[in-house]
Structure formats: C-alpha cells, structure tokens
Amino acid sequence: MRRLGRVLYIMLVLVCAVVLTAVGYYRYALPDRFTVSEGQQFCIGRLVQSETLTASGGDRAAAAAVGDEYRARLSLGGLFPLKEVTVSVSDRQVVMVCGIPFGIKMYMEGVLVIGLSDVTTAAGNVNPAAAAGVCVGDVIRAVNGRSVTTSRQLSDVINDCEGKPVTLRLCRDGVDFDATFTPVRPVGETGYRGGMWVRDSAAGVGTLTFYDPATGAFGGLGHAVFDADTGQETPLGSGEIVPARIFDVIKGKSGSPGELRGSFEPGTLGRLLQNGQDGLYGQLTAYPIGRTLPVAPRQQVHKGTAQLLTTLSGTEPQLYEVEIEQIRYGGTNTTRNMVVRVTDPRLLEQAGGIVQGMSGSPLIQDGALVGAVTHVLVDDATCGYAIFAETMLNTAQSVTEEKQKAAS
Question: How many other CB atoms sit within 10 Å of the CB of residue 347?
C-alpha cells in the first residue's frame, strides 16, 4: 500500500508540474489582443477555453458590431485560469491570394558599407575609414554635406579629394553621426581610397503572398530582405517589384537548402514602400490574377492539413499538401508563428520540400488564407516556418495608411 501511495503521489506531482508548465506557457505565448469578424465566435483551439466578459458581467460578444471591443477570460480546459484578453471586432478581411514569383529591385536609402579592407600605400597598409570608426553595416547618407544615393557618387568624391579630409554622415542602429578621415593614395594607382566596400542596391526573386483589391496594397516574402554581406536588413530608399519566371529548382536536402531560380520579366507590378521584419510591402500598379479568400484571424489557425500555394516552374502557382505541426500565437518573432511540414509527394520530389525563393508562398486552411512560408529548416528541408497572414495584412494596411497620410 505504501508503495502504491508513493506511486500515486509521484504521478500527482508530475501531473501538477505538467499543468503548471502548460499554464505558464500559455500565459506567455497568448497575446493580449485578438481580432474577430462581426458575428464570429471567439475561440482558440481545443485546449484553451474562452468566457466573454463585460463590465456588467453579461455576454455581448454575439451582438458586438464592427469597431466594438470586449474582454474575454481564457482558461486551460475550462479549469485553470490563464489571462484576460481584449477582442476587437472588425470587418471580414478578404484579399487576392497569389503565390506567384516576383522580382525585387531595391535601391538603398544611402550607401551600405559591406566590407573594410586595408589600402597598400608607400607607408604601409592602412585603413582610414576603419580608423575613423566606420563599421560594416553602417549606412552612408552624405559625404561632405551632400547626400549620396549611389556607390559611384561616393567613389567619385573620395577619389577626387586630393588628399583632403572627407566627412561621412553615417547611420548605425537608427542613430546618425559623423566620421571624418583622410583618404590615401594606393601604390601604383591614381586617385584616393578610403578602405571601404559599399553597395547601393539589391535584387532577387521571392513569392507574392496577397494583395488587397480595394487598395492595391500588397505583401510578400513574410520576412525582410537581408544584405548577404552584413546580415542586416537592407535599408530601403525606393524600389519596385516586377514580373518574374521560375526556370529551375535546386532540390533541398539536409544541411543544404535548395533554391528557386528565376529571371525578371519585362514590365512592372508595383512600388516598394517597406522592407520590414515581417515582409516586403507596397502598392501595386498592375494586378496579377489570384483567388479571392478571407484572411483567418490567428486564433482560427489550427494544427492539421493545409495547402501551400507556390510556383515551381514558369509563372503558374500550384497547390501542394502540407501539415501545420506547431502554432505559436504569441512571441516576438513574428516570422516563426507556425512550423509547417511538406507532405505532398510532388513537392518533395521536385524540390525536396521548402526551398529559398518560396518565402511568401501562401498557406490556405479551411478555405481561408492563414499564413505564408518564411524559412526552411536547414537540417530538414521538408520543414519550415510560417508567419500569420493576419500579421502581414495588418502591416500592409498600416504601410498604405502611413503613405496616404504623408501624401496628404
């Protein structure tokens, strides 16, 4: 009997530990605000239960209109309290879902320092820029008080400085500051050098996730465009997206992510307005063919079967079966809200799973847009991360509103 009692006690302790861990996790993972469409019931999966609250203790969720908000109490299985959240009621969001490749042409806001290297002079190897405090990843906005937008502009000023000091206006981590150095003359060359490698533009191919047919606002990639040399977000000054065509697929495998290879097509699709943490956003000038679908709020996304809309050849997207294995409703990394596994034999055969260039490929579940693929797992090409479509749509709308305010 004593042994049985000990076993039961240990089991009880373990159950309590599991419950406390789950409660702690959900309290942290669940955000403080959610959105529902008018007339829609607020619920989160199967484990987390919700109870609608008001100041008077009544239930007015069913009667809430667009623009209204109400409070809801969340609990684990209806037994263990988690937290109270705010639920906002909005219009049913509908977008045109794409899944087509698009070309990215980005012109930076200034000139990006991508490398530093010594200059061989008669007095030895020196690096004037590095000595003045210039670092890889700095953005050069001006030289000697004049704005620079191209590498050629910067190069011409330094090359023709005649050995006189040059002052750069730099931006690092959002802070502007000046750095002054004197360029040097390399052995066996004419002109002067500062010891910097710089870049003023970037280009690539990604996947267009959606656009709003009412406003022309679009979202793609689901993550920022990063500079290959600095590993930092590419600072966007201006840019455009253009039609693209996929002509080859490099199959992914463990330890070696694959790649969609594409080329730009003639014409333009729209303007780039933001290169941000959760994607590329802007305004369309030409409207691609897509399929009209509602955007699911994050709490409606659930584990299970979904479809991935992506293009492996040409310009026509196809649907492929995938499985949503994990969902993270909260957290600071919005590009990794879901873990998705490819199950479709066709996609596994042609690409090995998820490959570079698929970023932005829409995820469809229960007849709604729920997210977009953002990353592939390097050790397992069949798996990748995805962002909530709700997050991308909110950003696209916010970017458009800011642009309209700036223009008015």
Answer: 23
